[in-house]
Write a structure and sequence with these properties.
ParA/MinD_ATPase; alpha/beta; ATP hydrolysis activity; binds adenosine-5'-triphosphate; nucleotide-binding; binds magnesium ion
């Protein structure tokens, strides 16, 4: 399965959520690839705490070089072997593979992609789809060249038959809801660009689900003595739900949501059960990632309404 992670805005939690999703799939025994297609800022190595590729690979053999034809094979980094976090190196025999395909250090956004680049992209995605149960591709935000590149690649005959899912990340605010809706449904958005690339728009839309990230509690404990604030928060939450439904981001289009997590507020990382057991991370956060992983693989999630 190919999973494309994108968002209209930057800083939505796209990468942190995707890397936690990858981790949860891996501990449940699935082989997972994480491909860094955030071309302008290839920092996926930092999420998995791999200092040697924190800002992409310094050897210039990452996905940028691969797509440009400067290296025949894209560099792969075995997260379970080289992460600086000891617990990630001790996952045990039941866990699957977890392999990062980093970008190049100093690599930049592609301005356009010619047919050769699209062809190489298709070849890479096809090979990874054969090797891994789930291939998560973290795309640059917005209506980017990365988005168009994978839309063109997945429209090619060799990829058309593969299962592809689109995850759209957004924060739980007015601006983010409108932006996420625009990215999918608006002009030059996913559906329109996909159609121009040869996709069936309805089929493409069926493969799209939204993820709300870092959602604050609508009834935080601190508001017990402040009924006016408590009422205001509840009303805002209800208004956001109405806005989401009106903009086609309602419950039926949702893969799930993640709660505001203090650990992630301070630091981008994988939330492991040991962080919950140590009472550092909230149990609800670990649960949310496990549930996202379950829903992603559950065919019922992707039934047409
Ligand atoms: N559930 C959460 N609770 C609190 N903070 C979170 C949560 N999820 C993500 N964050 C934080 O939000 C910030 C942005 O997240 P992240 O880098 O994943 O976003 P992004 O959409 O990939 O951004 P970019 O466009 O820069 O690549 C990070 O500091 C991250 O740790
Ligand atoms: Mg990111």
């Amino acid at each position: 399965m190919l999973v494309f992670s994108t968002s209209d805005k930057g800083g939505t939690g796209r990468s942190v959520t995707s890397c936690n999703l990858a981790y949860r799939l891996c501990v449940s025994g699935r082989n997972v690839a994480y491909v860094d297609f955030d071309f302008g800022s290839p920092t996926a190595g930092a999420l998995f705490e791999i200092s040697s590729v924190e800002c992409g690979t310094p050897q210039q053999d990452g996905v940028h070089s691969y797509l440009l034809g400067e290296t025949g094979v894209a560099a792969r980094v075995d997260v379970r072997a080289v992460s600086d976090r000891p617990a990630l190196r001790r996952l045990g025999p039941k866990a699957g593979k977890l392999v990062l395909f980093p970008g190049d250090e100093g690599g930049a956004e592609f301005l356009t992609a010619d047919e050769t680049i699209v062809g190489r992209c298709a070849e890479l995605l096809h090979a990874l789809e054969q090797e891994f149960k789930v291939v998560i591709v973290d795309l640059s935000a917005g209506r980017s060249a990365a988005l168009e590149l994978v839309l063109r690649a997945t429209a090619l005959p060799q990829l058309r038959a593969l299962t592809a899912r689109w995850l759209i990340f957004h924060r739980w605010t007015r601006q983010h809801i409108l932006a996420a809706s625009g990215l999918v449904h608006g002009s030059h958005g996913l559906v329109q660009t996909g159609k121009e690339c040869g996709h069936d728009p309805l089929e493409l839309l069926d493969s799209v689900r939204f993820i709300r990230t870092a959602v604050p509690q609508a009834t935080p404990l601190g508001t017990v003595d402040r009924p006016a604030q408590a009422a205001w928060l509840l009303e805002q939450n209800a208004a956001l739900k109405r806005l989401a439904s009106a903009n086609r981001l309602g419950a039926s289009t949702l893969l799930g949501e993640t709660p505001m997590e203090p650990v992630l507020h301070w630091r981008e990382q994988v939330i492991m059960d040991m962080d919950v057991d140590a009472k550092i991370a909230d149990p609800a956060t670990a649960l949310a990632y496990t549930e996202l992983a379950r829903r992603l693989l559950d065919p019922a999630t992707w039934e047409r309404f």
